[in-house]
């Protein structure tokens, strides 16, 4: 009877705990807690740790969204999926957008669209 109940009971989604990344000639496990953000550049996806080290990933951002806990990670735009800890500063920007500064910092400007701004604000509360 217990086994039947367990089969039909709603299960909590299981999110990834770590990723195996390539670092030169070696493979390195990176715990999800170490991830500051992931971003795309020239059709490649990179994982950036809180210490600033950057590693290429084989997953697309769309797939990463399903693998990482949405309570901890948020998709800012088409290029960035960030952890809560990586958001350093948020500024109002032109036309209802938001400008985000990350830790570790990025040279490029990171914007959240007007449509995603209220979703981000709810996520941050």
Automatic annotation (TrEMBL):
What Pfam families does its record include? LytTR
Query: What residue stretches are annotated with the HTH LytTR-type domain?
Result: 19-125
InterPro entries assigned: LytR-like, LytTR_DNA-bd_dom
Q: Which residues are in coiled coils?
A: none
What's the name of the protein? HTH LytTR-type domain-containing protein
User: Organism's domain of life?
Assistant: Bacteria
PROSITE patterns the UniProt entry points to: HTH_LYTTR
